[in-house]
């Protein structure tokens, strides 16, 4: 008899899991409490996959042998609580895809900040290095869809903490943890340690044949390292000290050491600039050396990589004022890195849905670099409380157009307008991409 699989949530990961499950001869049922996006709905219909929307039919769901849960559904959801109580097996889509990846290798990347840039750079190096690879997970196609539709020899997987929460056997051959800062605490009972444990799940199934690349300069990672470290090979990256194995930068030179391999490269040659990107490049370069990609290919790829949309993206310079779109900065740590790389007087556009942000550690940088703050959100009270005494010019806005016009009004020739909100975007926008696009359109309309 066919095994029954129920997929909760019909976004990219849910539909990907449904396609893979159907291919592997499961009895598949997809259930989404909201309305399903038209393109995903037509895909399910086209493939004759049974689904429901706007409702969860409990009899159908509770009869499942296994449930694949969308990363967007929190643990506090009543249905999930009931399923847990009944002991029904719940896994994430990356776990399900892992079951069917065959002999392929996985490079898995997680972290509070920098994971999208690092993932994109790892993929770019792998592709330039001639590997048969795909970039999946939290970026682009879901892992399950890729395994079902076009299997590869190497999967570069961007993984959020939500996706790691429900893994059982998922094991990357190379794991990268960029850093850990307070983020998504609303999903972890406002307990930072729960979130930390979730991030370290990336190495929980690793063995002595695997590699774990981590940031030795990140205090939280280092503090909890021994608690979670198992039989994997830990490889640190650092800007503070030379390392016998791993990657480090001294005197503007990157050094990568893995077993007997060694590679050097000037940071002047990195395509992506800024201190945070030097960490991302070290992690990506080290993973590439571990994957046996030739040094000259790594060098070429690091020099030709193009930075991502909505991540420190230069939009335009108008009347001597530079506009930068960093809409992907959805937490205070991302905004800290953005501000840290500023060399001109800055008008900062900040705000949105606060996920339990602590703005205090931005204070010194704001005092040093920011001449005005434009709040872009429905509730900006916390921002005013945090910076009201340090920044003389502060204004509230509720649209990208108003925010851009206010910022331009405050700016003089030689200044920078930086959209780096430190918050989620769901109060005024569909997502951070929508926020970034509206910002860019408003700049072009000036």
From TrEMBL:
Gene3D superfamilies xref list: Mur ligase, C-terminal domain, Mur-like, catalytic domain, NAD(P)-binding Rossmann-like Domain
Every Mur ligase central domain range: 109-286
Chemical reaction(s) catalysed: UDP-N-acetyl-alpha-D-muramoyl-L-alanine + D-glutamate + ATP = UDP-N-acetyl-alpha-D-muramoyl-L-alanyl-D-glutamate + ADP + phosphate + H(+)
Keywords: ATP-binding, Cell cycle, Cell division, Cell shape, Cell wall biogenesis/degradation, Cytoplasm, Ligase, Nucleotide-binding, Peptidoglycan synthesis
Keyword rRNA processing: no
Residue positions binding ATP: 111-117
Pathway membership, UniProt: Cell wall biogenesis; peptidoglycan biosynthesis
Location in the cell: Cytoplasm
Chief localization: cytoplasm
One Gene Ontology term, aspect cellular component: cytoplasm
EC number assigned by the record: 6.3.2.9
Record-linked Pfam families: Mur_ligase_C, Mur_ligase_M, MurD_N
A Gene Ontology BP annotation from the UniProt entry: regulation of cell shape
Domain Mur ligase C-terminal: 310-423
Role of this protein: Cell wall formation. Catalyzes the addition of glutamate to the nucleotide precursor UDP-N-acetylmuramoyl-L-alanine (UMA).
Family: Belongs to the MurCDEF family.
PANTHER family: UDP-N-ACETYLMURAMOYLALANINE--D-GLUTAMATE LIGASE (PTHR43692:SF1)
Descriptive protein name: UDP-N-acetylmuramoylalanine--D-glutamate ligase
UniProt organism field: Ginsengibacter hankyongi
């Amino acid at each position: 008899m066919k095994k029954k699989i129920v997929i909760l949530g019909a976004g990219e990961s849910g539909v990907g899991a449904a396609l893979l499950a159907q291919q592997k001869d499961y009895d598949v049922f997809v259930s989404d409490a909201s309305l399903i996006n038209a393109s995903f709905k037509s895909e399910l219909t086209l493939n004759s996959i049974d689904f429901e929307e706007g409702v969860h039919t409990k009899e159908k769901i509770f009869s499942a042998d296994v449930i694949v849960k969308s990363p967007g559904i929190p643990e506090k959801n009543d249905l999930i609580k009931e399923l847990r109580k009944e002991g029904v097996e719940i896994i994430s889509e990356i776990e399900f895809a892992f079951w069917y990846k065959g002999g392929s290798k996985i490079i898995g990347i997680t972290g509070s900040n920098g994971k999208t840039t690092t993932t994109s750079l790892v993929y770019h190096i792998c592709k330039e290095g001639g590997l048969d690879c795909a970039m999946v997970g939290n970026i682009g196609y879901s892992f399950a869809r890729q395994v079902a539709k076009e299997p590869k020899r190497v999967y570069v997987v961007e993984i959020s903490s939500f996706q790691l929460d429900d893994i059982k056997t998922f094991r990357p051959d190379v794991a990268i943890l960029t850093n850990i800062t307070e983020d998504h605490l609303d999903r972890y009972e406002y307990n930072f340690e729960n979130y930390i444990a979730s991030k370290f799940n990336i190495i929980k199934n690793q063995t002595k044949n695997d590699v774990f690349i981590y940031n030795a300069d990140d205090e939280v990672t280092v503090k909890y390292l021994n608690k979670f470290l198992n039989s994997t090979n830990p490889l640190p990256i650092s800007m503070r000290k030379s390392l016998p194995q791993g990657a480090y930068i001294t005197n503007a030179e990157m050094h990568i050491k893995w077993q007997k391999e060694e590679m050097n490269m000037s940071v002047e040659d990195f395509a992506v600039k800024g201190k945070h990107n030097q960490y991302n490049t070290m992690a990506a370069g080290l993973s590439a050396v571990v994957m046996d990609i030739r040094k000259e290919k790594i060098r070429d790829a690091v020099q030709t990589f193009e930075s991502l949309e909505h991540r420190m993206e230069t939009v335009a310079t108008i009347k001597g004022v530079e506009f930068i779109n960093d809409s992907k900065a959805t937490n205070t740590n991302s905004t800290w890195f953005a501000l840290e790389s500023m060399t001109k007087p800055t008008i900062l556009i900040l705000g949105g849905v606060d996920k339990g942000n602590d703005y205090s550690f931005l204070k010194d940088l704001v005092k040093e670099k920011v001449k005005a703050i434009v709040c872009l959100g429905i509730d900006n009270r916390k921002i005013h409380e945090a910076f009201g005494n340090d920044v003389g010019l502060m204004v509230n806005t509720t649209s990208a157009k108003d925010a851009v016009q206010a910022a331009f009004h405050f700016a003089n020739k030689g200044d920078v307008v930086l959209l780096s909100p430190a918050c989620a975007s769901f109060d005024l926008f569909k997502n951070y991409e929508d926020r970034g696009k509206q910002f860019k359109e408003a700049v072009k309309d000036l």
